[in-house]
Records
---
Amino acid sequence: MKPMGALPPEFADQRGMLTIAGRPAEDWAADAGDTPFFVYDVAIVAARVARFRSAFPGIDLHYAIKANPLPALLAAIAPLVDGLDIASAGELHRAIAVKPAAAISFAGPGKRDDELTVAIGSGVTLNVESEGEAGRAIGIGERLAIRPRLAVRVNPDIELRGSGMRMGGRPSPFGVDAVRAAALVRTIVASGANWRGFHIYAGSQALDAQAIAETQAATIALAARLAEEAAVSPPLVNLGGGFGVPYFAGDKSLAVEDVGDALRSALDARPAVLRDTRFAIELGRWLVADAGVYLTRIVDRKESGGELFLVVDGGLNHQLAASGNFGTVVRRNYPLALARAVGEEPTETVSVVGPLCTPLDRLGDRIALPAGRVGDLVAIFLAGAYGASASPADFLGHPPAAELLANGY
Amino acid sequence: MKPMGALPPEFADQRGMLTIAGRPAEDWAADAGDTPFFVYDVAIVAARVARFRSAFPGIDLHYAIKANPLPALLAAIAPLVDGLDIASAGELHRAIAVKPAAAISFAGPGKRDDELTVAIGSGVTLNVESEGEAGRAIGIGERLAIRPRLAVRVNPDIELRGSGMRMGGRPSPFGVDAVRAAALVRTIVASGANWRGFHIYAGSQALDAQAIAETQAATIALAARLAEEAAVSPPLVNLGGGFGVPYFAGDKSLAVEDVGDALRSALDARPAVLRDTRFAIELGRWLVADAGVYLTRIVDRKESGGELFLVVDGGLNHQLAASGNFGTVVRRNYPLALARAVGEEPTETVSVVGPLCTPLDRLGDRIALPAGRVGDLVAIFLAGAYGASASPADFLGHPPAAELLANGY
């Protein structure tokens, strides 16, 4: 038997039939019309936002829509946050439908001229990733006779310890190396563009509050140093994100309040050049992962070589990350449950596999569950981030999964 | 500097501007209208088919459409092969448009009743994966008053040595364990269904001819043993596939002629119970991988921490496997080239990264290339299999890649 991660707090104490937003999983299945499908509970997102607000008073909250760009979910989240962070022209079209352009910023190492043109034309802030991109953006602004809103993305000379994905402290396609950032700021200011400040992202998926706090303090110090070097105060410093989610057995959820306390101390002591600067934290996964449940039905129950398999009708075509095939070296089990017996004593060890004709399509590897029957729903948790939109939906020609909203408006 | 795999034979001797099917890469870009895009050269697929026919006279060739289900490509391949192997109802709809139902077989561990119904109704052969699935298929056949075409997929008690993906010799969601297969055949025959034979798939992506030959010999012996045990000769034995493609530095292409020679010997000596049996080999990747090139344009050229990056407009959203994030433990470089200087001496070490705002989006890691400029095309080879349809196209909201056919008809 192998361990699996803990259910998110909103589901951890349930017993019997799983409910999502107070409704039984089978009712959601009836709404969806077919399996597999996702349900996203906006109330859980709102609870995470409230927790952030309480821990980080005065700090702007940005939602990185790459984590889950479903339009209905985005419409529900937009009023709860101060900004939306986007990474393509496609995401721009979704963001601008629900948020003013001035509250949208666009990062990404490979922005094409057509993307820069759309972004500048619509008044979105560009986090420029290189001197070359800055030059193209300034040129496009001149041609459009629009003063572009440009922030400088900095590749920091620090990294986020213990992050699942390090993005700083090393050669990187993201941002301009810190040693060249001040010069780029001066170029931007001299061009007459509207300089919006810094975007500094050191890593993601970290569960250690102390590590995030240290990174934030170092980021503030770096922003101050660069601002002094450029002799101009940044209107905004985007401190990045990095708040992780406990997917796996042994993971402990992040003590965001500790991060908030440390950030308050760091900001209280910040250098004068940042006195009037606003600060933002950019979160994707931490806001939406817990809110999503992926539900799939057992199609077959079979034995092979003394092991038991539950074959379900959903798999890595909708939930690539849960299969362990997206950015992870060692496959580990996401939390999952038999929906009609959540929280009940396990009675057997089973592997839960998807319908795809590849051994990669395994959602639960030798986990302990109550006995599942053909027709039962299986729930995979932490499916709200990097699920439907980050999976190879066309692979093997199965239909897309429906995506439903609970507590939406 | 890190190594990369060798270009496929059709491209390995080119110098200067890359040509695909005799046309310069930039002409294909003009056809596509935008980058990134795929080109699939049907002539290369046809050359692989011809090589197979020469090496395996009298053996049926099946195309596993999961490798590349593009309808136009499928229409071009269908007349060249004896059968199409599918893995979902979605693939069934594509296959039946270009091939008679009797030449189509459907494998997959999680076939739902609605998929079984469509398959039986259209006359496709089902490779049944369990006793439970066989029972459901027989029941659906009775309700439809159609005699279902059923083959038994066997989980062999052998594995394919050196295969990239082992699918035999262990507990598995695929097929019925060999020890129970004969009993299932008897059940199927007794039900009045049209028993079509065995499907036995021991692994995929193997480059060792000797290992494949041993597996095929063992598969034939297993099929004979099961047929004798069930006291009925199988009309067809699908020997599986497993023919690999040399993606990485040091990989040697598979000597299929050696496999063919060994198979001929094994079949010449086959037991009497298989005397009138047809044999098929099911290939996906080996037929189409070499035929595909993914072309993407350089958007930025930047330096960070002493390393050089070429940022291109295509990435893991279209070519997940090339980024090393799909079923591989250690990331290695696919073959790639600067399209206007293919085969020319490298002058610099660069990393080629995609436009996605994630460090996972790396197509070439510290490879040696001639100097690339913004606007140049970069070609990624071996993109014909498990590319566009096996990648998370929606991830980060970029447009889908165009897919063009060369030498199609």
---
Amino acid sequence: MGGSEASIEHPQQPYVPRDLHLPGYVPCFLSQFDIVVPYFGSSIVLVVFIWLLSGRYAKITKTDRLLMCWWAFTGLTHIILEGYFAFSPDFYKENTPFYLAEVWKEYGKADSRYLARDATVVVLEGITGALVGPACLLAVYAIASRKAYSYALQLSISLGQLYGFVAYFMTAYLEGDNFAASPYYYWAYYVGANSPWLPIPILIVIRCWKKISAALQVDKKMKIK
Amino acid sequence: MGGSEASIEHPQQPYVPRDLHLPGYVPCFLSQFDIVVPYFGSSIVLVVFIWLLSGRYAKITKTDRLLMCWWAFTGLTHIILEGYFAFSPDFYKENTPFYLAEVWKEYGKADSRYLARDATVVVLEGITGALVGPACLLAVYAIASRKAYSYALQLSISLGQLYGFVAYFMTAYLEGDNFAASPYYYWAYYVGANSPWLPIPILIVIRCWKKISAALQVDKKMKIK
């Protein structure tokens, strides 16, 4: 490797594969701390806000209040973070410390497909940002106002999240699973940061499935009578 | 293009991009007619069989009987055709006129990603063949035996089909939409053969959504009383 030549062509390009060509790439301005803390911090503020607000309505159970927190958190993550990525092909050229571009420059260290503009990742993030995200916010409203479609909606969204989850990891696996700059980024971001989106949607699918089936069982019995 | 040299390297490789490297490729043995007619023929026999069989149960409505036909047809298509593709990376080397390999050698003329073993296509077909397909057959049973989970199941499967449909076409679009050997194959196979899997799942999603919401509305009113 001609060290100096390579670094002229890819100035401080920290991604794997190392020969990923990113013309106009501008490195991260913010530290990992400055990227992760605002996300966790604003998420905690959001969850506390939704929890307290939903507590003002006596009819909403604690489980439903927790679900409202989840849907608000995951919905805004989908719309703001993932929606930005899906519709910003040039984020890695951003030459100011714009937070959303920084997030994806940093996350790309765990999955360089985001930098390479891999079609699968763009489509999965596009569906998630443009369709699943707004549907999550609708779920917050549907739970709060006890809409009859609330369970069908939550089932649908959770299944969409699970489909995206499986497709995201399976495509990387089939392509050799070599898109992380180090095992640290692989486990912290690629595995760790995505991990809530497997067990939580599964639990919600099971819950909605049971509620829907129980209601239709009642409905069937009434019709037979 | 060095015509004779190219044909030695890719013997009668009929796919686009023309330089797609397929070592060991064996051309189609069967004609388009011999591939399409058995599929249509066996599908019609299946649909007539399910229609007549379901007619023996007086309680099943005509809509539900039609849905049983659809789920049997789409389920077996997913499991047999798409399941075969997902787990047969070497189908294009098949040197006998094995029907399932012929189907994909032929369909590849409309979408060469199937020959190139594109990870997105393999994952989408894998999910469809291994998960969605068996769930479709469960739906046939669930409708016939009037299970309370029938609507949740049909909603889930149809959403999965729609997710796959959108991801399939969007990834091709983002990658330049240039995988068909001719406009004929593009429109007949890529667009035409896939077209039922957009309107039918949408109609089923709407129907299930309404049934589920109505049942939960009834359930809610009963609890209030």
---
Amino acid sequence: MTKIFFLVLLLVSAVFAAADITRVNTITTDAAIEAAEAVLKAARKANHTVAVAVIDRNGKYRLLITDDNAGPQTEESAKRKAFTAVSFGQPTSNLTAAAGGDGVTIHDIPNTLFLAGGVPITYRGAPIGAIGVGGAPSGDMDEAYARAGLATIHL
Amino acid sequence: MTKIFFLVLLLVSAVFAAADITRVNTITTDAAIEAAEAVLKAARKANHTVAVAVIDRNGKYRLLITDDNAGPQTEESAKRKAFTAVSFGQPTSNLTAAAGGDGVTIHDIPNTLFLAGGVPITYRGAPIGAIGVGGAPSGDMDEAYARAGLATIHL
Amino acid sequence: MTKIFFLVLLLVSAVFAAADITRVNTITTDAAIEAAEAVLKAARKANHTVAVAVIDRNGKYRLLITDDNAGPQTEESAKRKAFTAVSFGQPTSNLTAAAGGDGVTIHDIPNTLFLAGGVPITYRGAPIGAIGVGGAPSGDMDEAYARAGLATIHL
Amino acid sequence: MTKIFFLVLLLVSAVFAAADITRVNTITTDAAIEAAEAVLKAARKANHTVAVAVIDRNGKYRLLITDDNAGPQTEESAKRKAFTAVSFGQPTSNLTAAAGGDGVTIHDIPNTLFLAGGVPITYRGAPIGAIGVGGAPSGDMDEAYARAGLATIHL
Amino acid sequence: MTKIFFLVLLLVSAVFAAADITRVNTITTDAAIEAAEAVLKAARKANHTVAVAVIDRNGKYRLLITDDNAGPQTEESAKRKAFTAVSFGQPTSNLTAAAGGDGVTIHDIPNTLFLAGGVPITYRGAPIGAIGVGGAPSGDMDEAYARAGLATIHL
Amino acid sequence: MTKIFFLVLLLVSAVFAAADITRVNTITTDAAIEAAEAVLKAARKANHTVAVAVIDRNGKYRLLITDDNAGPQTEESAKRKAFTAVSFGQPTSNLTAAAGGDGVTIHDIPNTLFLAGGVPITYRGAPIGAIGVGGAPSGDMDEAYARAGLATIHL
Amino acid sequence: MTKIFFLVLLLVSAVFAAADITRVNTITTDAAIEAAEAVLKAARKANHTVAVAVIDRNGKYRLLITDDNAGPQTEESAKRKAFTAVSFGQPTSNLTAAAGGDGVTIHDIPNTLFLAGGVPITYRGAPIGAIGVGGAPSGDMDEAYARAGLATIHL
Amino acid sequence: MTKIFFLVLLLVSAVFAAADITRVNTITTDAAIEAAEAVLKAARKANHTVAVAVIDRNGKYRLLITDDNAGPQTEESAKRKAFTAVSFGQPTSNLTAAAGGDGVTIHDIPNTLFLAGGVPITYRGAPIGAIGVGGAPSGDMDEAYARAGLATIHL
């Protein structure tokens, strides 16, 4: 109880003392590993070898794993799907239609990939990271595996 | 008065003395900061977190600011929109139709991005720089914020 | 008062509800701009044209400004000095000796620059960002200007 | 028993049937995860936040994890140490002296980093991968954590 | 006979002793050279100058040869076609329709090229490498030459 | 006369003595400069500021000039148009239709740009280099200027 | 006379009307070509084949020429020497001692090269560009050729 | 006899007709393959697995082969050694002392590597290409294998 009280004080003082500081949320490493293992487990059940990337709000790797014998394109695919999901705060599958329209679209933004398989990690209404999966025979499967990972994260 | 006269002489002599020198105009750092602050203010009023880039005629950064919690895609988006606007001397929104036409278009020129949000800084009829904004829910909003920045520059 | 109480509850609940979330601190955009303006003011007083970079703990730009007529090497210098300071949690001038020793040293780590001019932004004992300055005739001056920026940040 | 016999037949036939095929060994994904978790556990015990990379004989990522709040330089450091260890088949700490000698040395080979913290995964006398760790206050500690990971791999 | 028996024992023991090791198959260097020579021979018969790339499952070069006077675009074309073929386990010509459809497709995956001329090297049902050819007047010819190379590999 | 005879002998002996040597033709530096000056002169007559690139069969720069105040996109545009023209042995304007067709086309080959403005330098039926121009209001004008340069080369 | 008077007025009005505009000086394209030709002439007299780069204050190419048969390292050498000279406002030969000292020096700043052969173009006390030369047997010769180019520029 | 006479005429006419054309010599593809096979044979005799690169005067790949199980650092090492040898027209082992001296040296030129193992292919006194080898336990061995390749080229 005392510990909680202390913590509260600490947090309150932080809010008042440091007007020039702002906080960015991200998932913990342990949560990223647990999510990645769930992704791999789901993919392997279907005999698929995938790469899984977990990135933070800055687009930086928290985790990257390429499963045994995954194709050489899966690493970058997984990363870009996650980058796209955290950038737009939506699953890449929600964005595919907009990106694939005629003319100039968000498709042209560098480092994005609008194939299904990227899902945002949303906390208090804001995207704080994303999971991206590549390597299954279809993007829908990639997304299903990404969601299996997402389901393990306690928000 | 004497000072102005001296200045005039200085400028005139420059014109005659150095035939091998040419001048490139660019906005001042202070103007770039003032413009960026106007961009951020306009975007925040709508609760949007954006990145703003100000570049010169060479495509080089004068200023880059990413607002608190802006997405990882906004930095490069803002830069490329500004690059595109200064390259073609027009707002990117004017160029979207041409870039998005069928077949080979200016869309293929490297480092460009033809989404709305880039506006040129025009001085004596020539583009001397540009402001690019990325991160709002639509390109039209990005452009509105970029124009709020442009409005602060005295040309 | 009610507002504070509510805030406290909010923070406490966050701590308990989301074991998979961790927080990364960074300075606000406004603080970054204020710091940069202090850097430029200090440098201009000595008639020096510099570039100033403010980066976060991920090594990502919060702000980059190159003053009028700053050399082409200053942008990357400022960024790398800031990167180095936030990586090691010390001013680059403290690291110069270690980096410059015989044989293999931290000097070899990619994207670092151990010239003076980078200072960490430290909050609760941890580096949460850094200011890097390049373009003055000596690294000591670059560092003095960076410190002028740091002095404006309320931690 | 039958299963083993079948396996033996399978392997023998492979050897005879495909003279144009050669095999490259690598550790499994599961082994890479287990090793990485051991690295993180050892580092956290000392309150250090590190990045850990596991790569294969081709220098390609099997796994990359950056622990909560690890510095921005740790990802590339971990990767390059692992790259160096698998390239030369020795811990990077064994190579530091040779790399740091006067004049032209192996230090100049691209993508290498000869700071301690990279250890090869050796199987039947050949390096088949490596673990690289970056972010501890000294390279010796990075190596100790890398070895904690190596100890979990059954060869 | 003794030798075979010994080999069998060796392989069996490997299977049991090293649960953390997995094997990746690739073609031998000699097979890659023989295949490349067959590619060149077929192309020259038609007076075409091509580049030929042989890559492994990791997308890494086993071999690259640019024939006398081949165009500057052929090296990267050959590599990317091979990368694409080994990534998807099919000739690039099989993938052209899917990649060229409306909207977002596999076409957007980085480092791919879906023009005809890339053929996978398939062993026991899995792509273990690929041959890519560029520089002939049409992709169909490039593919024919790639297949001439593939025909020399004993699987 | 003696000199010619000597030269003939020299060339003949070369042909016989060095079966392992082959020759690549390229235009001389002086020819490249003369061509570039003709490009600039033609462009300036119409008050256009362009960049002009002359490259060899390897896609390497022989010459690059960006005229006063040319846009930041012109350097890379000029280079890529020249790269494309020497790769395919035709003016880029001839290739625009093929590149801009539906689905997968030569448009996807890296480092190409199929806008008008690139013309090959053809010698004895083979492309030995190219001139690329960028920066005029239309590709047709870019091509006209490139052709003005080509006209000065004696083949 | 009237023309001069008009010009004076124009310049004066510019100074008063546009406080947010600043001017960057650079040499003209024609001056760059003339300088480059002088560099080549001087080098050829000694039978040396060099590359020559002329860059502006932003480090951007105004001109690049590689003479017939110049080595593949000369292009980047010439560019980096020029980059270094314009960054520091001195010939690279003046900087060699400082860059080559023990420990951390300006040598570590990205994109620099402190071998002799780069000379700044100085106008009114400020570096507005530079000429860089690479490919002669010694840096001193490279510098002599660069100076031959510099001598043709009227400042 | 008639054929030779015709050839002579052809060559002579070329010399007179095309003053704007110059010739660059390079080794043939077949010579490159033969040389590479000799390199591999020599290395394998000592049980070493190496990468071998053959490049032309432009620094562009004619051939790259990485032997079975060669380390991930060998490809770039082989290429850079060859690049260095063709740039300076000498074996890299001749250049090691100069490159490894105190202060600023040729060591700083981009894309070079001054470890032994690169040998130029010299024709009529000029470097027209180079062979680079990497992966043996010492540079001297790499050079011996490179020389075994060089010995097969008829100049």
